[in-house]
Each structure stands twice: as structure tokens, then as C-alpha cells.
Amino acid sequence: MLTRRHIRVKVMQSVYAMLQSQSGDLDKEEKFLNASIADMYNLYLILLSILSEIRKKAEERIFISRKKYLATSEEKNPNVKFINNRLLQLLANNQLLKDELERRKINFWENDDEYVNIILQDIYESDIYKKYMADKNSSFSDDKDFILDIYSHVIATNEKLYDYLEDKKLTWLDDLPLINTMVLKVFKKTKPSSSDDYFMPKLYKDQEDKNFALQLLRKTVLNEEKLQNEIDGKTPNWDTERIAEIDSVLLKMAICEFLHFPSIPVKVTINEYLEIAKEYSTPKSSIFINGILDKLVKEYEDKKMLNKSGRGLM
């Protein structure tokens, strides 16, 4: 579920928080990092489950309308294409998802169902929904494309949902773009035959990725002064104080990977941190960081300091 880039972002946030607070309690920060990463899975489950709850609310509305004493012909014979959406049905009938939500005591939408109603109403009012409901053709592919559009343009962009999640847990604000991307990725690859466990991927790809998160945090923090010395003198046109704090953290993490993670290719490290800089720092940060890292790589190569293992790592 988590990529190495996701892990690097979470470590970046932890390193930044430690340097800002000037805290020397690495054990505490490691626990926070583990909890923060684990909590991303809760957010994934919450966003996945809201679709089931939206479908459930839509079904309840249809049931109530049909029971009206003076129900209209349309209310008696409603268009049920939305509640019969095949992807929504897969989620609604997913017992593993239900069990995991219960095990983790995630019952947000039962307690705060007004947010489900708000999003459902936004869906009803969207052109995406109107076009979908008007189309008499129906296939799994059509149903999936509709959910992808609704999630991208109605759910993921909903400001009230954003505010609600912010109130629940502040760290989720940084995680939301990543988790939204994960949800969409899961939906894009969903098939009619997808089993329940398909929607419940592992948080880490393997134990190596889990270890990577803690090792990157530890080695960056414990070697912070040495890593800063590597940067000093490589920025002739910049005072140390003028370097954006996020850029400084990203540089230290990248240098740490150069020197302390022999299995990670240099090019991979550079590309990863340039992409993170584009998203999390200033518009010119990626150019600045690229220049510094290029200088350092050449210097390390000359000094034979890059002890990379494996094929094609350079």
C-alpha cells in the first residue's frame, strides 16, 4: 500500500518536527512515526467505508420515498442504478472491511452521518451523477468509471469532509492526498471478481520497507550535524539561514541515503527527493536541491564514498 515515497514523506515530517521542537527524544519520535504511519490505514478505511455509507443512505431515501402515502410515480418506481452500482455493491458486501472497521472501532459515519448526507446531496446535484443515471447502458466498467469520477470530483474535493477529518486528527491533512491517490488506485484496478481482501492491502509491502522508515529517521537524526556539514560550503550563493527548512531536511535525508543505504540507487534517491520537494516546498526548491545533490554525488564518486551494492545502482 505505502510506497517508499510515502514513507520518505512521513519521515520528513518527523525529522522536521524534531528539529523544530529541538527535541532529543528519538524514541518518542519513533513511536509517533509508527503511529502516524499506522493511522494512515485508518484514514484509508474511513474513506473506503464512506462509499458504502453513501450507498446505504441512498437506499434508505428510496425506501422512505416509496412508503410515502402520496408517492409520485417516480418515487414508486425510482431509478436504482446508483445503489446497484457494482463497485459500490462490492464494498457494501465486503465482510473483511466490516470486520476491520469494527475491530478498529471506526464508526465515524454512524456517529456523524450528517456528513454522509452532505456528500450524497453533492453527488445528486453533480452533472456526473445526472449523466450516469440518464444512461441506460450499464457495465462494470461504466460503474467503476462513475465511482472514479465521483470520488475524484465530489468526495476528494469536499471541503466539509476535509474540515471534519482535520477536527478528528490533524496529521490526516498531510496524509489525505496520499490516501485519496491510494483509494483511486485500488478502484482503477478493481475487477468484478475482486475478492474481499483485494480492498484490504497490507500497509507495508514488506518488512524491509517497515525497517526503512525507522532506519531513515534514526540515521538522519543521529547524523544530523555531520549531514549539515556536508551541505555547508555547497551553497555559495545561499546563507544557511536562507535555505528553506524543508529543503534542509530533504537534503539531509538524501545525503543520508547516499552514505548509509547502500542498496538504494543514487538516481532513485535524487528523483524521489526532487518530487517530494516539488510538492512540499517552494517552487524553486527542486532546482536548488538537484544542484546541491549533483555536486555531492560527484564529490562522493571522486572520493569513492558511494558504496552501493547490486546491479545498475548508479
From TrEMBL:
The keyword Transcription regulation applies. This is Transcription antitermination factor NusB. GO terms for molecular function: RNA binding. Pfam families: NusB. Belongs to the NusB family. GO terms for biological process: DNA-templated transcription termination; transcription antitermination. The keyword Transcription applies. GO terms for cellular component: cytosol. Residues 205-298 form the NusB/RsmB/TIM44 domain. NCBIfam families: nusB (TIGR01951). Keywords: RNA-binding, Transcription, Transcription antitermination, Transcription regulation. It comes from the Bacteria. The gene is nusB.
